[in-house]
Specification:
475 residues, single chain, mainly alpha, two-stranded antiparallel sheet
């Protein structure tokens, strides 16, 4: 029989190796996948809003959070369906935002309580099994929304919804798998601390597991002050230390903690074009938000134009719209704020030019988002250099447009304050989603640049094909 000291050393070594693997390999990947999950959900949510199945709830979306957890799972009555879905999906969005903004993806931060909250949140919507017979009201109602969209005539939206659902399901499965692995690690690390700090004070030979848990509580409070008390984990320790199956249970722990890394795939040729294509698609994901922005800008502009305008001016404007295409003729002078320096400047924005640019972007991004479109095929067939140039141009252009839209949104909001007859259609949610697409696109762009530089450096060393293979595998 193995001495307990030797067993603890083996357990400590296994935990150290597993912890290093999780910190350096799995948790960075988890962070990226959680961010992708939020992006996919935002796209699905925007489809529901555009189809008038769900209404936005900006007030609830802004509620602050202190920890991550799932919204209410109480049954939704038919009479309250619209209000409850608006509130619960807004709460779900807020929790995802909090998770991606404030959570640290490290073993020191993700304790068992926080992991449980993350699991509860990610499992809130079962994307791979949305049916009308589900026990969860939100899932039943979402299944009905999806059915209504699929029965409609908008084939592009139907395909996009199907693609987003597939992507978020795949991402959800990865997140849950990693969280399961991290949970198992944290449980064994907690039990190891208990074995070292509390177990030497107990005699388990004459105790049942339940008696051991009861006897351990006072010693636990002294030896592990501030730590959460998990009776089920202490019961496991008692079983593993005092039962006839002790040796087998301990060996199973070491097997569970063993690090199993994916074997690198052999590559004959390395190309980083896929990273660029991912970056372009992340940018194109803002197309739906831009379409909503066009609708809101149009309403705000027409409200602005109708204020304090006499009948003759209204008639002249109507004639221009009929014969001269002057519907959007207007130049706005808006205040722009530099996010880095906080410097304020005033910029003139030609509304017609901006609307034309937005409409062109919607058409382009919509085409790129469809796998079977000509634009999508051309993107896949283009060289790295051409895709990189295309990405840079459109990323820079969208950043400029985003700043202009921020300025216009504030301009209209201030202009309509105090006017009961003027309703401002805010764009805060859409602008936040567009900003999110820009940030994620930039991250992919930097990933590509770093990979390309690594490849070029290896090539300069004269390592040749093997160097390219190694660079590719490092990704």
């Amino acid at each position: 029989m193995e001495a307990n000291g030797d067993w603890l050393e083996r357990l400590q070594d296994a935990i150290n190796k597993k912890g290093d693997f999780l910190e350096n390999h799995e948790l960075p990947r988890l962070k990226k996948q959680v961010a992708l999950y939020q992006t996919y959900f935002e796209n699905i949510f925007n489809i529901l809003v555009r189809k008038s199945l769900v209404q936005e709830d900006p007030y609830n979306y802004e509620k602050s959070s202190t920890e991550v957890g799932a919204p209410s799972r109480e049954e939704i009555r038919e009479v309250d369906k619209n209000d409850q879905m608006r509130q619960r999906l807004a709460a779900f969005r807020a929790q995802l935002e909090y998770l991606n903004t404030y959570y640290q993806f490290s073993l020191g931060f993700l304790d068992l309580k926080r992991i449980r909250g993350m699991l509860d949140l990610i499992n809130y919507i079962p994307w791979n099994s949305l049916t009308g017979s589900h026990s969860h009201s939100v899932s039943v109602i979402l299944a009905d929304y999806f059915r209504r969209i699929n029965m409609g005539t908008d084939a592009m939206t139907t395909k996009l919804l199907r693609d987003m659902t597939s992507q978020i399901t795949h991402t959800m499965q990865f997140i849950l798998a990693v969280l399961k692995d991290v949970t198992a690690f944290q449980r064994e690390r907690y039990k190891l601390q208990f074995r070292k700090s509390v177990l030497p004070q107990l005699d388990l030979s004459a105790m049942s597991p339940d008696q051991a848990v009861k006897a351990a509580k006072p010693a636990f409070a002294r030896a592990m002050p501030g730590a959460a008390f998990y009776p089920e984990l202490l019961r496991e320790v008692a079983e593993e230390e005092g039962s006839p199956q002790s040796e087998g249970l301990k060996e199973a722990i070491l097997q569970k903690l063993a690090v199993v890394e994916d074997k690198p795939k052999k590559k004959t040729k390395t190309s980083h074009k896929s990273i660029l294509i991912q970056a372009v698609r992340l940018l194109a994901a803002s197309g739906f938000q831009l379409e909503d922005v066009i609708s809101k800008l149009t309403d705000n502009h027409e409200t602005m134009m109708s204020r304090k305008v006499g009948p003759l001016k209204k008639l002249a404007r109507w004639l221009r719209e009929i014969f001269g295409g002057g519907r959007f003729e207007q130049v706005y002078e808006v205040e722009m704020v530099n996010s880095q320096t906080s410097a304020r400047t005033y910029v003139k924005i030609d509304f017609a030019e901006l609307m034309n640019e937005l409409q062109n972007k919607v058409k382009l991004f919509s085409a790129i988002s469809r796998e079977d479109s000509v634009a999508s095929r051309q993107l896949r067939a283009a060289s790295e250099e051409k895709i990189y140039g295309f990405l840079n141009r459109n990323l820079s252009s969208l950043q400029t447009v985003h700043r202009q839209l921020m300025g216009l949104n504030d301009h209209f909001k201030k202009a309509f304050q105090g006017d009961r007859n003027a309703r401002h259609r805010g764009m805060r949610v859409e602008l936040a989603a567009i900003k999110n697409s820009i940030v994620k696109c930039n991250q992919k762009k930097h990933e590509y640049v770093a990979a390309k530089e690594e490849r070029e450096q290896l090539a300069k060393l004269g390592v040749g094909e093997k160097a390219e293979q190694a660079a590719g595998e490092s990704l």
